[in-house]
Amino acid sequence: MHHSVRVALGERSYEVEIGPDLLSHAGARFAPLLARPQVAVLTDDTVAGLHLEALREGLAAGGIDMVSLSLPPGEATKTWPHLERAVEWLLSQKVERRDVVVALGGGVIGDLAGFATAILRRGVRFVQIPTSLLAQVDSSVGGKTGINSTQGKNLIGAFHQPSLVLADTSVLGTLAPRDLLAGYGEVVKYGLLGDAEFFAWLETQGPRLASGDMAARVQAVARSVQMKAEIVSRDETEQGDRALLNLGHTFCHALEAATGYSDRLLHGEGVAIGCALAFELSARLGLCPQEDPSRVRAHLREMGMKTDLRDIEGDLPSAETLVDLMAQDKKVVDGQLRFILAHGIGQAFVTSDVPREVVLDVLRDAS
Ligand code: GLY
């Protein structure tokens, strides 16, 4: 049931290992990377309570010692004070350039630890052990690292590729159903952006995945990572194709800003709504078959996910304000809003050529 996907980036290539019970074999997986048998782990309090001992035992089985620093869980940790704390702690632990730091956690820990190691001693290697579905299929792969600014999410950061990613699908069993489904929003995104067959597979296997079927989980994570690896290998720093990974994200970022990055809307939930809206927009512009948006929505609904603005609890700003929020996205180029639209399921493309009025109509009809 194990898969290994290579992210091909020349000298910075690495493997993403996917399957159950990888934590217990961490020692053997780490050994080839280490100059001395010790690692420093950055994690958060929730994940530490659930998985840190399993990692300690897995490393100890390979004769590797570990020290760890646990930060508070949540997006507020992706800020300067916690980055400073992490970097100072790594220095106090005498982590050297030849050492390896481990990010054990979801996207917040992965992004922060990745950035901490990018700047520590001008670059130290790190290993991602993503513990959320979202981190396993998206944020742990591809080397985007960073923290948030008061002016926006992920505005401070660096590209710093990990040396190894261990996506242990057993740990997904401890996720709250809402968090698992939010991560599933990113899984669906891969089918929608580039693999119609994968989307059709998800239509039949998604419910099994959600209810805990390990084979379905491994398969979904592996296919998602394979697609991400291919795109990142082609376009590491997002000069072109990598933007396809932002399908649904232009809408999502505006909705996240409108809901104050709170529990009202998790990132993956926003991505799912954003994907449904991107297909609606594509259909209205005559770019994709009229039935595609309904098919996307039907699958998300069957999975028990949000698909429209009206599914978000509480009031939202007007469609005009949402479009203005989209214009603040960091991916805006020369003031032009960029959208990822589709010619059909599995056929996404990037465009700036979208009339504001049509976007407003789509948002109004989803409210
Ligand atoms: N999450 C989008 C990317 O890694 O490019």
Summarize the structure.
The chain contains 13 helices and eleven strands. With 367 residues, it is of the alpha/beta class.
Report on this structure.
This protein is an alpha/beta fold. It contains 13 helices and eleven strands. Helix 3 (80-92) crosses helix 4 (107-119), helix 5 packs parallel to helix 6 (177-194) and helix 6 (177-194) crosses helix 8. The longest helix is centred in the middle third of the chain and has 21 residues, at 214-234. It is globular, with a radius of gyration of 20 Å. The protein binds glycine. Glycine is lined by residues 138, 142, 144, 242, 245.
Helix content: 40-55%
Secondary-structure-derived class: alpha/beta
Number of helices: 13
Average pLDDT score: 96
Q: How many strand segments?
A: 11
Major β-sheet strand ordering: 1-2-9-6-5-3-4
* Beta-strand percent range: 15-25%
Bound molecules: glycine
Shape: globular
* Distance N to C terminus: 43 Å
Order of helices and strands, N to C? EEHEHEHEHEHEEEHHHHHHHEEH
- Characterize the largest beta sheet: strand count, sense, and whether it forms a barrel: 7 strands, mixed
- Rounded to an integer in angstroms, the radius of gyration calculated over CA atoms is 20 Å
Note poorly predicted spans: none
